[in-house]
Amino acid sequence: MAKLTKQQLRLLEVYKNRYVGHGLREGQSYMNALYDISPTVHDSILATDADCFYNDNKITKFFKELTNDKQETV
After folding, report:
1. Could you write out the DSSP letters of every residue in 8-58?
2. DSSP for residue 58
3. What pLDDT shows up at residue 2?
4. What is this structure's pTM?
5. How far apart, in whole angstroms, are the C-alpha atoms of residue 52 and residue 60?
6. What angle is formed at CA 14 by the lines to CA 28 and CA 38, rounded to 5 degrees?
């Protein structure tokens, strides 16, 4: 199950664009927007390899974390 719904992912883009419009980098904008939408999911990504606040190159990992099911197969 995805951590964010499709509706939340669309809203994430809207919020991100607002932050970018205020001069923040894309990674900063995504992390701030995620906090606005779901502080719990934000906190689960914070300080992990998917945290793109300081590094825009982690945006791909950020989205994988938001959309991929992390269940292990046995």
Report:
1. HHHHHHHHHHHHHHTT--HHHHHHHHHHHH-HHHHHHHTTSTT--SS-GGG
2. G
3. 59
4. 0.89
5. 9
6. 65
CA distance 1 to 5: 9
Q: How far apart are CA 21 and CA 66, in angstroms?
A: 23
Positive or negative, the CA dihedral 17, 21, 22, 28 is positive
The pLDDT tens digits for 24-69 are 999 999 999 999 999 999 999 999 999 999 999 999 999 999 997 5
Local confidence band at 73 (pLDDT 50, 70, 90 cut-offs):
very low
DSSP state of 3: S
Quote the CA–CA distance of 1 and 57 in Å, as a whole number.
Answer: 25
